[in-house]
Amino acid sequence: MALYPIFVETAGRRVVVIGGGHVGAEKVRGLLAGEADITVISPELVPELREHVAAGRIRHIARAYEESDLDGGYEFVMVATDDGAINAEVAAAGKRRGIWVNAADDPKHCDFILPAVVRKGKITLAASTSGTSPALARRLREELDAYLTEDMPALADLLAEVRQAMRARRIRVESDTWQAAIDEPLRLLLAQRKYVQARARLIERLGIDLPPIATEDESSVRAQSGA
Question: What is the pLDDT of residue 215?
Fold first, then answer.
């Protein structure tokens, strides 16, 4: 496969998942994290998916897939069955309609594949083996999860907040200065949940002037930042 890695905005986009088993449930978990508008087509559902239906998080069409299902205005199709014939049928029907198709563990019938994903706060890391080894993809996910230490989400929040404040004041800082400012003492302060002190250190290291945050109640700041 010749893959170009991208992150796609899925919030509110209509996606259909064909298959209501454990693989379908895994697909739905990722789509729910992306706030997609999800419909599952399957005669039966595993308990996890039934719970999502009962809670109104997804819709369920309780029957086998039919080609006309792809005329429902969906933007992506995810096939979560172990039936190669269904994969091929859906892939062909999707191509005729210009709809992207993903077929679980069947790269030749995919327009896109799903990487191993780790999410913590605003940070999302993804790794792919181009569909060749789910076992290696799982190992990569575990190692990436270990790499994302507790300070990382707080660091992302801090950098986003300071960058937004700088943009509002038309302050520019060179990339190398940013890199130098993101040092171990800064991360240590965030790991200790000292957000106010970490922010002050970052601003000092960037060599800029920004007003302090509105509250001196650091526990409140941590709650807002997710630290």
Answer: 53
The pLDDT, as a whole number, for residue 135 is 85
Query: Is the distance from CB of 190 to CB of 154 less than 8 angstroms?
Result: yes
HSE-CB at 62 with a 13 A cutoff on CA atoms is: 6
Domain 14-114, architecture per CATH? 3-Layer(aba) Sandwich (3.40)
What are the boundaries of each domain within the chain?
A: 14-114, 115-142, 151-225
**Could you write out the DSSP letters of every residue in 117-172?**
EEEETTEEEEE--TTS-HHHHHHHHHHHHHHS-THHHHHHHHHHHHHHHHHHTT--
Q: Which amino acid is at 186?
A: L
Q: What is the pLDDT of residues 99-142, one digit of tens each?
A: 999 988 788 888 888 888 888 888 888 888 877 787 898 899 89
Grouping H, G, I as helix, E, B as strand and the rest as coil, residue 44 is: coil
Low-confidence ranges of the chain (pLDDT < 70): 1, 214-227
